[in-house]
Design goal:
Elements lengths: L6 H4 L12 H6 L9 E10 L5 H6 L8 E4 L5 E9 L3 H14 L7 E10 L15
Antiparallel strand pairs: 1-3, 1-4, 2-3
Bound molecules: zinc ion.
Zinc ion binds next to helix 2.
Length: 133
Protein backbone atom coordinates (compact mmCIF):
# COMPACT_ATOMS: atom_id res chain seq x y z
CA UNK A 1 0.00 0.00 0.00
CA UNK A 2 2.81 2.39 -0.84
CA UNK A 3 0.46 4.98 -2.31
CA UNK A 4 -0.85 5.58 1.19
CA UNK A 5 2.47 7.21 2.04
CA UNK A 6 2.28 9.52 -0.94
CA UNK A 7 2.03 13.05 0.46
CA UNK A 8 0.51 14.38 -2.77
CA UNK A 9 -2.19 11.72 -2.67
CA UNK A 10 -3.21 12.79 0.85
CA UNK A 11 -2.86 16.54 0.35
CA UNK A 12 -6.10 18.50 0.53
CA UNK A 13 -6.55 21.67 -1.59
CA UNK A 14 -5.18 23.74 1.30
CA UNK A 15 -1.95 21.78 1.53
CA UNK A 16 -2.89 19.88 4.67
CA UNK A 17 -2.41 16.16 5.11
CA UNK A 18 -5.95 14.74 5.00
CA UNK A 19 -5.04 12.25 7.73
CA UNK A 20 -4.42 15.15 10.13
CA UNK A 21 -7.66 16.86 9.16
CA UNK A 22 -8.25 20.30 7.70
CA UNK A 23 -10.54 22.81 9.39
CA UNK A 24 -10.87 24.77 6.13
CA UNK A 25 -12.11 21.65 4.35
CA UNK A 26 -14.53 21.13 7.23
CA UNK A 27 -15.81 24.71 7.04
CA UNK A 28 -16.13 24.58 3.26
CA UNK A 29 -18.16 21.37 3.56
CA UNK A 30 -20.81 23.40 5.42
CA UNK A 31 -21.70 25.12 2.17
CA UNK A 32 -20.75 22.66 -0.53
CA UNK A 33 -21.06 22.96 -4.24
CA UNK A 34 -24.00 20.65 -5.01
CA UNK A 35 -22.29 19.57 -8.22
CA UNK A 36 -19.49 17.91 -6.28
CA UNK A 37 -19.52 14.16 -5.63
CA UNK A 38 -21.02 12.97 -2.37
CA UNK A 39 -18.85 10.84 -0.08
CA UNK A 40 -19.60 8.58 2.82
CA UNK A 41 -16.58 8.82 5.12
CA UNK A 42 -15.45 6.65 8.02
CA UNK A 43 -12.54 7.51 10.32
CA UNK A 44 -11.13 5.10 12.87
CA UNK A 45 -9.06 6.81 15.53
CA UNK A 46 -7.75 6.42 19.05
CA UNK A 47 -8.21 9.04 21.72
CA UNK A 48 -5.64 9.68 24.44
CA UNK A 49 -8.50 10.26 26.87
CA UNK A 50 -11.78 8.33 27.05
CA UNK A 51 -14.53 10.34 25.38
CA UNK A 52 -17.56 10.81 27.67
CA UNK A 53 -20.72 9.09 26.48
CA UNK A 54 -22.53 12.42 26.46
CA UNK A 55 -19.95 13.89 24.09
CA UNK A 56 -20.40 10.90 21.78
CA UNK A 57 -24.14 11.42 21.76
CA UNK A 58 -23.86 15.17 21.20
CA UNK A 59 -21.93 14.80 17.95
CA UNK A 60 -25.09 14.26 15.94
CA UNK A 61 -26.21 17.75 16.97
CA UNK A 62 -23.53 19.13 14.68
CA UNK A 63 -25.64 17.89 11.82
CA UNK A 64 -24.30 16.69 8.52
CA UNK A 65 -25.02 13.18 9.68
CA UNK A 66 -21.91 12.89 11.79
CA UNK A 67 -21.94 9.95 14.15
CA UNK A 68 -19.30 9.03 16.71
CA UNK A 69 -19.24 5.52 18.11
CA UNK A 70 -17.03 3.79 20.60
CA UNK A 71 -15.81 0.40 19.45
CA UNK A 72 -15.31 -2.52 21.77
CA UNK A 73 -11.53 -2.16 21.74
CA UNK A 74 -10.26 0.32 24.35
CA UNK A 75 -10.05 3.93 23.22
CA UNK A 76 -10.88 3.15 19.60
CA UNK A 77 -13.59 5.26 18.06
CA UNK A 78 -15.35 5.41 14.72
CA UNK A 79 -16.47 8.73 13.27
CA UNK A 80 -18.73 8.60 10.25
CA UNK A 81 -19.94 11.53 8.22
CA UNK A 82 -20.92 12.62 4.76
CA UNK A 83 -19.37 15.37 2.70
CA UNK A 84 -19.32 16.74 -0.80
CA UNK A 85 -15.82 17.10 -2.19
CA UNK A 86 -13.87 16.88 -5.39
CA UNK A 87 -11.83 13.93 -4.14
CA UNK A 88 -12.08 11.38 -1.37
CA UNK A 89 -8.99 12.80 0.31
CA UNK A 90 -10.68 16.16 0.64
CA UNK A 91 -13.78 14.51 2.10
CA UNK A 92 -11.59 12.73 4.67
CA UNK A 93 -9.77 16.00 5.50
CA UNK A 94 -13.11 17.67 6.15
CA UNK A 95 -14.46 14.94 8.44
CA UNK A 96 -11.22 14.76 10.44
CA UNK A 97 -11.30 18.57 10.40
CA UNK A 98 -14.50 18.25 12.40
CA UNK A 99 -12.46 16.58 15.17
CA UNK A 100 -9.75 19.24 14.95
CA UNK A 101 -12.40 21.94 15.11
CA UNK A 102 -14.13 20.38 18.12
CA UNK A 103 -11.32 19.87 20.61
CA UNK A 104 -13.86 19.90 23.42
CA UNK A 105 -15.13 16.57 22.08
CA UNK A 106 -11.79 14.92 21.38
CA UNK A 107 -8.64 16.46 22.79
CA UNK A 108 -5.83 14.39 21.33
CA UNK A 109 -6.42 11.70 18.75
CA UNK A 110 -4.54 9.50 16.32
CA UNK A 111 -6.13 8.46 13.05
CA UNK A 112 -5.68 4.74 12.42
CA UNK A 113 -7.60 4.20 9.21
CA UNK A 114 -9.90 6.03 6.84
CA UNK A 115 -12.41 5.12 4.19
CA UNK A 116 -14.27 7.26 1.70
CA UNK A 117 -16.99 5.76 -0.45
CA UNK A 118 -18.34 7.78 -3.33
CA UNK A 119 -22.12 7.79 -3.09
CA UNK A 120 -23.10 10.04 -5.97
CA UNK A 121 -24.28 8.30 -9.07
CA UNK A 122 -21.76 8.89 -11.82
CA UNK A 123 -21.56 7.65 -15.36
CA UNK A 124 -18.59 5.41 -14.72
CA UNK A 125 -18.95 4.70 -11.00
CA UNK A 126 -21.86 2.65 -9.68
CA UNK A 127 -23.44 4.26 -6.63
CA UNK A 128 -21.83 3.18 -3.39
CA UNK A 129 -18.89 1.46 -4.97
CA UNK A 130 -15.74 1.83 -2.98
CA UNK A 131 -13.34 3.81 -5.15
CA UNK A 132 -11.03 5.43 -2.61
CA UNK A 133 -8.54 4.78 -1.24
ZN1 LIG B 1 -8.26 21.50 3.29
Amino acid sequence: MSYRDDAAFWACPHGQDARHGCVTCYEESADPNPDLPFWDVAIWFTSDQPIPVKALQDVHRHGRRFLLDKLSAPHIYLLTGQARAERGGQAVAGVIGFLVHNRHVVDAFTVKDTRAVRMSPAADVPSGERVWP
